[in-house]
């Protein structure tokens, strides 16, 4: 099953709709969507190494724009959109505690770490940044540095080592999927305990 999904993703990443789809996923991932743009970015770079810099630029721009949208949700529509979701999941008290402990330095650090590593998730940090009215200019600059750094570093690595990485993935796909399932399970358990 995973082999078919992997092959389908690689084929789709080479289609003429790949760039707009990756841009759309990159935009919504930064503000509310749970799946990272890497799901399309990486296979696209593997299938077209001659376009990695173009893909990195598209992903960076759309991710930063999505982050601005997330900031606006937090700043202008928190009570309408985010608060009901937090209440539904029983996370409003935890969010309020985080908000009370968050200063500009902490938000800036979270923006950079989430932009580079997805920890904490980018959408959480973008919305939180809007809620605490983090300076929009600094928000945009940090998002450009973090998201651009991430996508351009990935583009470099995929262009340079992509063929070897693709071969490694194809030979060990079942092991990689098993490892990802374990990591996702551990993250789920950790979030349930918080």
UniProtKB/TrEMBL annotation:
Xref: InterPro entries: DedA_domain (IPR051311)
Gene source species: Cypionkella aquatica
Keywords: Membrane, Transmembrane, Transmembrane helix
Record's keyword annotation contains Transmembrane helix: yes
Residues passing through the membrane, by range: 55-78, 173-191
GO cellular component terms listed in the entry, alphabetical order: plasma membrane
UniProt protein name: Membrane protein
């Amino acid at each position: 099953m995973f082999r078919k999904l992997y092959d389908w993703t690689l084929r789709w990443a080479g289609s003429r709709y790949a760039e707009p789809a990756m841009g759309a996923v990159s935009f919504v991932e930064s503000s509310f969507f749970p799946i990272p743009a890497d799901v399309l970015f990486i296979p696209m770079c593997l299938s077209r190494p001659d376009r990695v810099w173009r893909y990195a630029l598209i992903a960076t721009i759309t991710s930063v724009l999505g982050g601005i949208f997330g900031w606006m949700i937090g700043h202008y529509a928190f009570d309408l959109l985010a608060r009901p979701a937090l209440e539904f999941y029983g996370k409003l008290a935890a969010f309020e505690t985080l908000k009370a402990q968050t200063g500009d330095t902490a938000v800036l650090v979270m923006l950079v770490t989430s932009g580079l590593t997805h920890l904490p998730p980018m959408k959480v940090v973008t919305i939180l940044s809007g809620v605490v009215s983090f300076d929009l200019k600094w928000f945009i600059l940090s998002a450009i540095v973090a998201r651009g750094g991430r996508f351009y570093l990935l583009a470099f690595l995929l262009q340079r080592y992509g063929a070897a990485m693709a071969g490694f993935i194809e030979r060990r796909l079942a092991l990689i999927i098993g490892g990802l399932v374990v990591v996702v399970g551990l993250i789920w358990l950790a979030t349930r305990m918080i």
